[in-house]
Amino acid sequence: MAETLQNLYLGFSVALAPDILLYAFAGCLIGTLVGVLPGVGPLAGISLLLPATFGLDATRAIVMLAGIYYGAMYGGSTTSILMRIPGEAASVMTCIDGYAMARKGRAGAALAIAAVGSYVAGTVSIVLLMFLAPPLAAFALRFGPPEYLALLLLGLLVLAYMSGGSMVKSLAMAALGLLLGMVGIDQMSGYFRFHYGLVELGDGLGVVPVAVGLFGVAEILTTAGQAKPPEVIRPRLRELLPSRREWRESAAPIGRGTFLGFLIGIIPGSAHIISSFVSYAVERRLSRRPEEFGKGAVAGVAGPESANNSATSGALVPMLALGVPSGPIPAILLAAMMVHGVSPGPLLIRQQPELFWGFIASMYVGNLVLLILNLPLVGLFVNVLRVPYPYLYPAILAFAILGVYAVNSSVIDVWIMLLMGALGYVLRKLDFETAPIVLGVVLAPMIEMSLRQSLALSDGHYGIFLERPIAVTLLAVGLVLVLFNLWSFVRRGLDWRARIALAEKGEQT
Amino acid sequence: MLTTDRVAGVALVGIGLYVLWESRALPLGTLYNPGPAYMPVVLALLVILFGVVMAVTGGAAPRLGGVGWSEWRHALVILVVCAFAALALERLGWRTTIGLALAFLLGVVERKGVLVAAVFSLALALGTFYLFDTLLRVPLPRGPFGM
Amino acid sequence: MTIRVSALVLALVLMMPAFAAAQDAYPSRPISIVAPFPPGGVADLTARPIAAALEKVLKSPVAVVNKSGAAGAVGMSFVANAKPDGYTLLLSLSSISIIPEADKLFGRKPAYTVDQLVPLALLSADPTILVVRSELPWKTAKEFIEDAKKRPGQISYSSSGIYGTLHMAMELLSHAADIKLRHLPTAGAGPAINAILGGHVDVLASGPAAVIAHIESGKLRPLASWGDKRHPALPDVPTFRELGYPGAEFYIWAGLFAPRGTPAPVVAKLNEALRQAVNAPEFKGPMEKLKTPIAFKQGEEFQKFFDTDARRLAEGVKRVGRIEEKKK
Question: Do C232 and C243 fall into the same domain?
Answer without folding.
Answer: yes
